[in-house]
Amino acid sequence: MKKLLFILSSMISLTYANECANIDTKTREIMSKNQINGIAIAIINNNKVEYCNYGYTDKIKKVPITNKSIFEIASITKTFTAQMAVIAASNNKLDLDASVTKYIPELAANESYTHINNKELLSHVAGLPFKYTDTVTESELLATAIQNKPNHSPESYYQYSNLSITLASISLTRIYHTNYENLLKKLVLNPLGMKYTSMNISPKNQNLIVTGYGKDNNPTKLMTMGITRSAGGLKSNTYDLARYLQFQMNRENSQFKNVLEIVHKNYYCLDKDGTSQQLSWEYHTMNALSEQFLPNANYANILEPREVPTTCKTTENGFIDKTGNSPGMSSYIGYIKDHGVGVVILSSKGYQPDVVNLGRYILKTTINQSKPPL
């Protein structure tokens, strides 16, 4: 493990001097247009990382953003939950294709849940709604879930769902007999050496917290998501997330090789042009890099609900990404494996589709400026 972390740290310390210069004009343009106070960016190119930091952690204190500045990463949290689920599956503790009622027997009181499995939950095709009645405890959430029938049959309809991810995480915590935070540290954060990523920011890192701002440009509080924290409660920085993204990109050389191959398989077609749903990540054709991202009606930076097509174009060499949103912050993480290019963006303004557009612009610009990986 020490050898693995040493190699990764060595890769992260190397940088390309021109990556930030290549995106500077576009980044400042988007910040000005959307009145974004601070943005932290990490660009990965052939295992070399450059950090591009803009603005301040707070409008009043004017502390400059760095690669250690901590933001809410919101729904990027879902990718961690998916990775833990596949680790559990690889250890024969979780069957992704078994009914969720095997792990959460209470749900069997509603027959609909006997037909839903964890793969469908992690792929947003279980027929469950995006948002759910506010609940504080696991028992409250399950009691509410039992009273509601899913809107669609499994695998027939895509509906981005925080409830789906939460149910998958409850399966995990019951299997391992621990809470989500402890399990995350054990299975992902500690093995990858991610020291700044957590649900609750430690006292020693309080000075690194970035203030988020809503659409009205007023400061917002960090989210307290309670039992649904596995769907969007993590806080992190570009320093840690660059490390995390490198493991996704270099999975052949990773201790998580088999796990990540399962996570990044295209399970469900989301449109006939080739967009596909992986386990909490999305796969897109290269054409999407040049298209304007269109958020859903609530500007949640997620895809609109839709029927799952029965046929879909098979495409290769596309890109994989995930968006995140909270009332005061927007985030993006994505990569093009065949080009060895990836990007992480953390922004201190909530519900900003342009953060997705910036991320895809950076991916496209970086591959146009660089050579393919050896």
Please, could you describe this protein's structure?
It is a single chain. The protein has 374 residues and is of the alpha+beta class. The chain has two domains: 2-75 and 193-369, Beta-lactamase (3-Layer(aba) Sandwich), CATH 3.40.710; 81-180, Methane Monooxygenase Hydroxylase, Chain G, domain 1. The protein is 32% helix and 15% strand. It has ten helices and 14 strands. It has helices at residues 2-13, 19-34, 77-90, 118-122, 138-146, 162-176, 180-192, 238-249, 257-263, 353-369; strands at residues 38-45, 48-55, 71-72, 157-158, 212-213, 219-220, 235-236, 268-269, 276-277, 282-284, 306-307, 319-325, 330-336, 341-347. A hairpin with a 4-residue loop joins strand 13 (330-336) and strand 14. The longest helix is centred in the C-terminal third of the chain and has 17 residues, at 353-369. The protein starts with a helix and ends in a 5-residue tail after the last helix. 49% of the residues are buried.
Question: What's the arrangement of secondary structure elements?
Answer:
Elements: H1 2-13, H2 19-34, E1 38-45, E2 48-55, E3 71-72, H3 77-90, H4 118-122, H5 138-146, E4 157-158, H6 162-176, H7 180-192, E5 212-213, E6 219-220, E7 235-236, H8 238-249, H9 257-263, E8 268-269, E9 276-277, E10 282-284, E11 306-307, E12 319-325, E13 330-336, E14 341-347, H10 353-369
Antiparallel strand pairs: 1-2, 1-14, 3-7, 4-11, 5-6, 8-9, 9-10, 10-12, 12-13, 13-14
Helix pairs in contact: 2-10, 3-6, 3-7, 3-9
